[in-house]
Design a protein that fits this description.
Blueprint (H helix, E strand, L loop, with lengths): L2 H56 L2 E2 L7 E2 L3 H8 L1 H36 L6 H9 L6 H11 L6 H8 L16 H13 L1 H12 L3 H9 L4 H29 L3 H7 L12 H11 L9 H33 L1
Antiparallel strand pairs: 1-2
């Protein structure tokens, strides 16, 4: 064997050794990532996936208590859509939840975008205003609901007293006692508390936009209004999508603010009843007129809520992806 052949064989051996070493390092790196992900995966399976599948299983059974034993198949779903006892309450809760979500989208997120645009500019004391806007989000929902119930009290609440003092006594209404006002008032209270969340997210998106784009638009003679809507807002569309999805999921799971201000039945006369309160009364507290928990029907309501959330999120993601593909 010539010296050139020997050198070539050594090169191949060295190359094979390096490849094996790189593969072993890559395998160890993947194993390390898997070990890091394993605790989070176990937590997700135990506290998210397993309860979800168990809820699907329970929706096929009926009976009182936390462990219904009588298998009824899809009868709970049939009753939910056909039995007047459940159908009226379920579709009413769906409608109220949609209204609750719509008010948050139009009021909370619009104000959040406005506040973010103002706070992104340079002015004195903006950090103080950031703290003031975000401060309500740090409070307990039950505390906020209780305080606003006191403020809106029709007899001695601060709102009606102030309206009477300034000569607007005709506007002093039973805010939480009117079927047409209860849900919008509670929704606005919730939007007031959580407006800081979209404000922070929109502000982060605005701060991340290069200032050179705005400067170029100003050189071309664009006003600040035109710069925001034609330069900055299109770049905020991904953030708007994230905020919309978070708002949708949170609002369709809302329970505590309704429970604090309108009770478990969404009083008066179920006018503020949401899907979460309906599930609570049905599966945990016991719905009128039965008065006993029906975990099977409660699980069916929870499953339908999950399906609504899944369809809504998937539809939104599909629209976002379609828009991105058309722009590309």
């Amino acid at each position: 064997m010539t010296q050139a052949a020997v050198n070539e064989q050594k090169k191949r051996s060295l190359s094979g050794y390096l490849n094996e070493t790189l593969l072993s390092n890559e395998s160890r790196r993947k194993m390390t990532w898997l070990l890091f992900l394993l605790p989070a995966f176990l937590v997700y399976v135990v506290f998210m996936a397993a309860p979800l599948f168990d809820s699907l299983r329970l929706s096929l059974f009926t009976g009182t208590g936390l462990t219904p034993t009588t298998f009824v198949g899809l009868q709970n779903y049939i009753d939910l859509f056909t039995n007047d006892l459940w159908r009226v309450r379920f579709f009413g809760a769906v409608l109220h939840t949609c209204i609750f979500f719509a008010i948050h989208m139009t009021v909370q997120n619009t104000l959040g975008l406005l506040f973010a645009a103002l706070l992104a500019s340079n002015f004195r004391g903006r950090n103080v205003y950031r703290t003031i806007i975000f401060a309500p989000a740090t409070l307990s929902v039950l505390v906020v609901g209780f305080l606003w119930t006191l403020i809106l009290n029709p007899t001695w609440g601060a709102v009606n007293i102030i309206l009477t003092k300034v000569g607007l006594g005709s506007l002093a209404l039973p805010w939480l006692g009117d079927e047409n006002l209860a849900l919008p008032i509670i929704s606005l209270t919730s939007a007031w508390q959580w407006v800081g969340m979209p404000t922070v997210m929109f502000l982060a998106g605005l701060v991340g936009i290069p200032e050179e784009l705005s400067e170029a638009a100003r050189v071309d003679g664009a006003s600040e209004w035109a710069i925001f809507w034609r330069v900055k807002f299109p770049l905020l569309i991904p953030v708007v999508g994230i905020v919309a999805v978070i708002t949708f999921v949170d609002n369709f799971n809302a329970f505590d603010v309704i429970y604090a201000m309108a009770g478990a039945r969404g009083s008066p006369n179920y006018s503020a009843d949401l899907l979460a309160t309906l599930f609570y009364r049905t599966g945990i507290a016991g719905e009128h007129p039965v008065g006993l928990p029906n975990m099977g029907m409660g699980a069916a309501i929870a499953t339908m809520t999950f399906l609504i959330l899944m369809i809504g999120v998937l539809l939104w993601l599909f629209l976002i992806r379609r828009q991105s593909s058309s722009e590309a």
